[in-house]
Design brief:
By secondary structure, this protein is an alpha+beta fold. The chain folds into 3 domains: 119 residues, no CATH class; 234 residues, GROEL, domain 1, CATH 1.10.560.10; 140 residues, GroEL (3-Layer(bba) Sandwich). The chain is 46% helix and 14% strand. It is built from 20 helices and 20 strands. The strands form 6 sheets. Strands 11, 12, 13, 14, 15, 16 and 17 form a 7-stranded mixed sheet that branches. Strands 1-3-2 form a 3-stranded antiparallel sheet, covered by helices on one side. Strands 6-19-20 form a 3-stranded antiparallel sheet. Helix 5 packs antiparallel against helix 8 and helix 9 crosses helix 16. The radius of gyration is 37 Å and the shape is globular. The N terminus is likely disordered.
Length: 645
């Protein structure tokens, strides 16, 4: 087999060209080619060990045989391998073994032709991957979703821990808000992203409870996995969860209390509910003041008759460098701008302001133009014309009775100097959203042309002042005592930017809770009391159920128990001991207000501790978690784009 006749049986390794082709195709760079393989002689190419020209084939044979020879039947005395170096032919191995070997190798190789028409075989990087399906796929999806839930589990409750999120740019975010944590995480698994969207949906609709909904979903998936191991069908589990969810929703409505409050007089319940939300936040030391700010801000813009709150009318501004207790609510607008000229007045009483969206500059043609200045006289004419435009604009502002100008666009130093001479303090480069809020708060109209200026379109405010912060040059403009109180601003202070941002998120959650109470004034009690009451009711429903559904219903009750257990665990208490004690007291006293004493105040009655949660927020948690878990349970295959095997 070493003469000219053997040349047709032994292929040459064309490594360099094949490596380039393989890299372009995204496959391995090991390539074997031959002019006349002869079908069944592909193995001869790989076993060409005696020829010094094909040492590469000889070296790679053990690996290839281990990787690609799994479809071959094991050797027996009658089908033993020939000694190394011996020629391989159809007589030395049974026909069925060669056919099996060819089939295994053909599944992992592909034949192509080079530019000269010569065939060569490309070895793929690895065997074709088969997708996981059925029960294995469901368990894989459950594991991915539970990994996300376990991350948030330690952040649940008033004693929950914070997470530090580091962005690719190095920006640091410290928070225990579930929606923010998941939003900053780079979640790649497709099913795990469902929990990210779940938390975001809770945040968009309710604004609070983003951590609890993910923890509940993870607990439901854990219980579902146990049922799958016992042989229950995923559809039966999903149906049982849906039945249990209806029981839990009815129980929440039964244990809820209705609270009464007045927009101008009694807001005690609103403040206490907002304090419950702020208990787990970084600003919990000042939670009473922050809760009062949140309630005042919401009630200032709330339409109680329509049970509606327009959050667009509440502006959040933050400025690092102060203390958290310096946070204040301003019945007006705060913008991160300053007066355009240092010699202009820094405080204007009884301000009447022009709110302009037109540029404070000479008009420009809409087409491209060019102006050639060839002499000093021409330049003087151009300058005089520009001065005339500026003077006319300032005169129009003065004529309508304005004593302040707020412009969306910038203006040059010449116009700024003329405004100073006319005694008109000005603010430039004000954003469109802020300009609209200023118009709403001051009762003014936004003017698009100077010719439309009139006294009726001026915005009015009791005081406009420029505020400086510390020794820095940073300044902000405060517009207060406005004609309309429909727009307010919360100015948040803090030691650094991270604290300010977390305080803003915390206040937003508190405002959302107050808004929910304005829309629906029913509350349930926190500390896991509502979950334990629902768990007891669902367990009783499981006892009354027949068939396999009772196992899924009872598993739903166990998942509800996991929420108070997480609260106890994060508070440094014994989870099982606390849960069993509270559940026993609820059953004995028939009091659904008993929960986990996370703050260790000596009583489990959450009504006495004034730990309140909104009913619609708790119902939304249970509904969303159940829906997502049902969706995950019904997934038995994940098909990626371009994958059909």
């Amino acid at each position: 087999m070493h003469g000219a006749g053997a040349a047709g049986w032994v292929a040459r390794a064309r490594v360099s060209r094949a490596r380039r082709r393989g890299e372009r195709r995204g496959v391995a760079s090991v390539v074997f080619c031959g002019r006349r393989c002869g079908g069944a002689t592909l193995e001869r190419v790989l076993r060409a060990s005696s020829c010094p020209k094909h040492r590469l084939c000889h070296r790679l044979w053990p690996t290839l045989r281990a990787d690609f020879g799994r479809g071959v039947e094991p050797s027996s005395p009658s089908t033993a391998e020939p000694p190394a170096g011996a020629p391989l032919n159809s007589r030395s191995r049974p026909r069925r073994v060669l056919v099996a070997r060819r089939a295994a190798l053909a599944a992992t190789m592909s034949m192509v032709f080079d530019e000269y028409g010569r065939p060569f075989i490309i070895l793929k990087e690895q065997q074709q991957k088969s997708r996981i399906k059925g029960l294995e796929a469901q368990k894989h999806n459950i594991m991915a979703a539970r990994s996300v839930s376990n991350i948030l589990r330690t952040s649940l409750g008033p004693k929950g821990m914070d997470k530090m999120m580091v962005s690719p740019d190095g920006d640091i975010t410290i928070t225990n808000d579930g929606a923010t944590i998941l939003d900053k995480m780079a979640v790649e698994h497709q099913v795990a992203r469902l929990l990210v969207e779940l938390s975001q949906s809770q945040d968009d609709e309710i604004g609070d409870g983003t951590t609890g909904v993910v923890v509940l979903a993870g607990s439901l998936l854990e219980q579902a996995e146990k049922l799958l191991d016992k042989g229950l069908h995923p559809v039966r589990i999903a149906e049982g969860f849906e039945t249990a969810c209806k029981v839990a929703m009815k129980t929440l409505g039964d244990v809820a209390d209705t609270v009464a409050f007045d927009k101008t007089k009694d807001d005690k319940v609103l403040v206490e509910t907002a304090m419950t939300t702020l208990s787990s936040k970084i600003i919990n030391v000042h939670k009473r003041k922050m809760a009062q700010i949140a309630v005042d801000a919401v009630m200032s813009v709330a339409d109680v008759d329509r049970n509606d709150v327009n959050f667009d009318m509440i502006k959040m501004e933050g400025k690092p460098g102060g203390r958290l207790e310096e946070t204040e609510l301003i019945k007006g607008i705060v913008i991160d701008k300053d007066i355009s000229h240092p010699q202009m007045a820094k405080e204007i009483k009884d301000a009447k302001m022009c709110i302009l969206t037109c540029p404070f500059e000479p008009p420009k043609p809409k087409t491209k133009h060019k102006l050639d200045i060839t002499s000093k006289e021409d330049y003087d004419k151009l300058f005089a014309r520009e001065q005339h435009y500026f003077t006319e604009m300032v005169a129009q502002c003065k004529a309508c009775g304005a004593n302040m100008v707020i412009c969306q666009w910038g203006f040059d130093d010449e116009a700024n100097h003329l405004l100073l001479q006319a005694g008109l303090p000005a603010v430039r480069w004000v954003g469109g959203v802020e300009l609209e809020l200023i118009a709403i708060a001051t009762g003014g109209r936004i003017v698009a042309r100077f010719s439309e200026l009139s006294e009726a379109k001026l915005g009015k405010a009791g005081c406009v002042r420029e505020v400086a912060f510390g020794t820095t040059k940073e300044r902000m403009l405060v517009i207060e005592d406005c004609a309309s109180s429909e727009a307010v601003t919360v100015l948040v202070r803090g030691g650094n930017k991270m604290i300010v941002e977390e305080a803003k998120r915390s206040l937003h959650d508190a405002m959302c809770v107050v808004r929910n109470l304005v829309k629906d004034n029913r509350i349930v009690y926190g500390g896991g009391a509502a979950e334990i009451a629902c768990s007891i009711a669902v367990s009783q429903a499981a006892d009354d159920a027949t068939g396999q559904d009772q196992y899924a219903i009872r598993a739903f009750a166990d998942a509800l128990d996991d929420v108070p257990m997480a609260l106890a665990e994060n508070s440094g208490l014994s989870p099982i001991t606390e849960l069993t004690a509270v559940k026993a007291k609820q059953l004995a006293e028939k009091n659904p207000n008993l929960g986990v004493d996370c703050l260790q105040q000596g009583t489990n009655d959450m009504k006495q501790q004034k730990v309140f949660e909104t009913l619609i927020g708790k119902q939304q948690q249970v509904q969303l978690a159940t829906q997502v878990v049902k969706m995950i349970l019904k997934i038995d295959d994940v098909i990626m784009h371009g994958s059909y095997a």
